[in-house]
């Protein structure tokens, strides 16, 4: 053997040398240059192996005791869940504070909408990029950077003195969130072995559902005692504690052979996703697809993403291996994720208005009504991996989608006097359904991606969530708006002529205009009837989309496995994990 390589037969004189020797041996064996017994395997690839070995020797101790990481794994998961929870929770908390913010900052309706949309736009546009950067530069590093930026932007948001400042700060919060979300799932893939990974991902998925429910509850409780900035300021101590725990517990991981950076692909992904999501958001706000800004942005985004796919297929170092989409399990899983978020968020969003306006519940009471959803999702998510091992991903995911469709179908029959138990049962069934869809689908996506590219897999998974959810709110929102406007047109005739058009935009604006004009009794009945008609249409369409997802799952996802099959992560070389 070349004298420049460390003599594997020699006994190192210190712990540092031992660690370096172990790492050198790992790299040499991995590259096929050294046999398990230490001999030279072949001359092919020796130059590449020698370069990696020399780099490993320069870097010094890098290997963490895998037993230590294994013993910490559930503590690590807890830190990752809290990191994700604070990011997702903040978006749902903000919805409760919008009216207070409007009064304090004298914000217009459009400015309030962009306080929400600036976050969503930046978040969705950068998810893929930060997933890629995490694989290259370190996932823990991206997680900590994202949390730090999120915490700083939260503090700025809390003390914003104008709508413009709030919108800008929210955009920076979106940057931080885009770094956090893919890193958490990618780290889970590194820390947990395949037999426990499904359960860990189930808990990760459940934390997203919990945040949707806890948001209104926490926001309502804070606003009863403090000013609106408290919904942002509460993030700061959580971020500080999270950063300390991440530095202590979470190991660093990255792709050991990242190859060259793909700036062209990264730029195309950012531009394409940003244009697409912007078009979707504007379509939802304007309740039309005929506006040039709406269809121009949407078609432009799709065109750029098509160019991105073309570019990646021809690149020697693609940011995204588009060949993954030829894998039917991967494609069916990401499609299912997008469709179920389309159906769920598109309906879930409008149920908030039903509970607060039609039923007259406070934000806190509304949040409590969603508790069965959170409880069911939390409980069933932890058992979904066991169910998949017993009955197969197709049966479990198909059953979950069937439950989602059933719950949405039930919401198509609600009215002003629907019993509370019926609503709670519908939310419970929906939570149980989502718990049996998202963990298996997410696990399938991550299993199809090589372990060293877990950040990219996580980013694709989360991007489909965001785009699917945004499409659901926009398209189903447009349906609701159209049905509501046609149904309430006669009722708003009693309002002053100058406010009729604006009052017919939504149930909220109608009731506010009626209250100012002193004609609530005359408008209330027809307005509620028109709104419920729109909700029924939205619920039935959501149920149809969920049913379509069942068809996708039935055709493309495999049945019960007859034996263990290693996933793509296990088929690839193991990553070197750093503390």
Describe this protein's structure:
The chain has 579 residues and is an all-alpha fold. It folds into 3 domains: 15-59, no CATH class; 71-261, MFS general substrate transporter like domains (Growth Hormone, Chain: A, Up-down Bundle); 321-568, MFS general substrate transporter like domains (Growth Hormone, Chain: A, Up-down Bundle). The protein contains 23 helices and 2 strands. The chain has helices spanning 15-30, 46-59, 66-105, 109-137, 139-158, 163-191, 194-223, 230-233, 235-249, 263-286, 292-314, 328-358, 363-369, 371-381, 384-391, 393-411, 420-435, 438-448, 454-488, 500-503, 507-517, 520-556, 568-571; strands at residues 252-253, 577-578. It has a two-stranded antiparallel ribbon with strand order 1-2. Helix 4 runs parallel beside helix 6 (163-191) and helix 12 (328-358) runs antiparallel to helix 22 (520-556). The longest helix is centred in the first third of the chain and has 40 residues, at 66-105. 49% of the residues are buried. The model is unreliable at 1-64 and 568-579 (pLDDT under 50). The chain crosses the membrane at residues 74-94, 114-133, 142-161, 167-188, 200-221, 227-249, 261-281, 293-311, 332-355, 367-388, 395-414, 420-446, 467-484, 535-557. GO terms for molecular function: transmembrane transporter activity.
